[in-house]
Amino acid sequence: MLRIGENHTLNIVRETEPGLFLTDAEGNEVLLPNKYIPETFELGDEINVFVYLDHEERPVATTLEPLVKLDEFAFLKCVETTEFGAFLDWGLEKHLFVPFKEQAYPMKKGGRYLIFCYLDEETDRLVASSKVHAFLDNSELTIEPFEEVDLIISNKSDLGYNVIINQLHLGLIYHDDVFQEINVGDEMRGFITKTRPDGKIDVSLQRPGYRSIEPNADLILDKLKQNEGYLNLTDKSSPEAIHSQLGISKKSFKRAAGNLYKQRKIDIKDDGLYLKEEA
Q1: pTM above threshold 0.85
Q2: Any idea what DSSP says for residue 177?
Q3: Any domain includes 103
Q4: Reduced to 3 states, what is the DSSP secondary structure of residue 253?
Q5: pLDDT digits over 44-57, tens only?
């Protein structure tokens, strides 16, 4: 069966007036309309396509790459609202539908929203939902502390920012650990700092614990060498000043600077850090 909402590598089996018919190993067929046919091809060639439903609710293939696929999250623009729901631009000719019941709050034309794309079992159509947390599961965690992970910023809360981890789990970055501008829909890398018995996950945008010492120490050394051996930062500098110059937290800075001092690679004085000649 050719699942809609996914990419498939199919064989070109015949050419017809509306386009090419493609099949999988089980003989399931789908049409690739003329507008997507490659300039050169031969019967029997393999071609990678995305399968979805056209305006007449028939399975159809395209060589275009959608902005979101089945069971994925994405940050998309609303291009139309109707009495039935909202429609999002996901990079294909037919827009992605969001029923009213699946809108966390009413969508507006021109707005951008974090959504999850899923298959509606009642209609067998791909639809989207902005109630994204309903599609995350922390009951069985697939991550561990200190692991580097993929993140999508979900929403801001009183504690910090909720994030989607590896398209599977819900995590939290605390306000105190944020030293850069981040917005809903941003995709970035982060690190697991703690997993709790209740399934909650703490996340940081910086490598946690002592595993971060060496990368940050190298960062400080490089900065010192670029600035003729001097850096106007101390443990009394503001977190904003430290992040502005180094892109790391004050806690990480103090730990890395202390490590360099113990290795006798720098001097720490009241007005900043000084690179030792032998370093």
Answers
A1: no
A2: G
A3: yes
A4: helix
A5: 999 999 999 988 88
